[in-house]
Amino acid sequence: MIKIGTYFAYWAQEWKVDYFPYIEKAKKAGFDVLEISSGILDLRDDELTALKNAAKDAGLTLTACLGVTRDMDVSSADEVTRRKGIDYLKRLFIAMDKADIRKLGGIIYAYWPCDYSQPVDKPAVRARSIKSVQELADDAAQYGIELEMEVVNRFEHFLLNDAKEAVQYVKDVGRPNVKVMLDCFHMNIEEDNMGDAIRYTGEYLGHFHIGETNRKVPGKGRMPWDEMAQALRDINYQGYVVMEPFVKMGGGVGSDIKVWRDLSDNADEAQLDADIAESVKFLRTKFY
Predict the structure, then answer these.
(1) What is the pTM of this model?
(2) What is the DSSP pairing of strand 33-36 with strand 103-107?
């Protein structure tokens, strides 16, 4: 059965935060999954165990998602930078294992956001990226961790922009624990047909991110939810559907996601909690 989740940054303005309060928020809102970022690398072993136990007590599964920064680009032509990124992600796998996190997605195959002031050599970047992800996948496998390659729009990166590119990339990596992550925010820009893209990805779909076209919570916009839900049923997808709403300006999150106006209608924290809880109810009418 599909599990519904959310990314912690709906409530947060920075990528590295104390995740414990968001476990309680996600539980109260009715989620099955809480997705966090790389801040767990700052936690001691006992804190990672506490995070694992808090999620378990709340009935939540934890997943992780991030965009690797440029100084740790695993597709870099600079070998020092490439190794730095690989070593960083391998350390992250160790922390994830201690927190019982078995899925890591995002732009972990290159870096994010892309700097387009520099020339783009896509074939060379792709080859180095595949080499790095193969090594990372082999290391992640010992912890039972699956890596999800997120497909993003052309304005954020050039390597994986649609389902066809992503499926071929995963095939070329050739590791069973490397899958595709589709995100309907990006699909809305790049795909000809949302449902067809999901069906094309098929068995390679390991994770699915959702949100409205302007990144509001699902149910407040015009995304073709029935079409996407039917396509997921068509491929018998039984994984996680994780919303990734970004509605508040400010901090590293607002800056990186390019939230330049308040999309929450000036909601306070109580209203934000109410809005996302209503969105969970909406999604359960669509995906079940």
Answers:
(1) 0.97
(2) unpaired
